[in-house]
């Protein structure tokens, strides 16, 4: 397997859960299937899901919940 770094598709604020009292979509060590939601990026009250395009295991996040991210910035590592 190969570890791949997945990048932010657009700039905004990264959220690991759909709300403050909701569980995170994925944690380090979780299995990831194609189509799974990994997080959300919010831009001007519009939320865009970060969807897994490959299956594997989520190794590590490069950003924290509510961090500002730029397009192309590393979000997480996937062992695919």
UniProtKB/TrEMBL annotation:
Residues 1-79 form the Lipoyl-binding domain. Keywords: Biotin, Fatty acid biosynthesis, Fatty acid metabolism, Lipid biosynthesis, Lipid metabolism. The keyword Lipid biosynthesis applies. Pathway: Lipid metabolism; fatty acid biosynthesis. InterPro entries: AcCoA_biotinCC (IPR001249), Biotin_lipoyl (IPR000089), Single_hybrid_motif (IPR011053). Signal peptide: none annotated. Transmembrane segments: none annotated. The keyword Transcription regulation does not apply. This protein is a component of the acetyl coenzyme A carboxylase complex; first, biotin carboxylase catalyzes the carboxylation of the carrier protein and then the transcarboxylase transfers the carboxyl group to form malonyl-CoA. This is Biotin carboxyl carrier protein of acetyl-CoA carboxylase. It comes from Ancylobacter crimeensis.
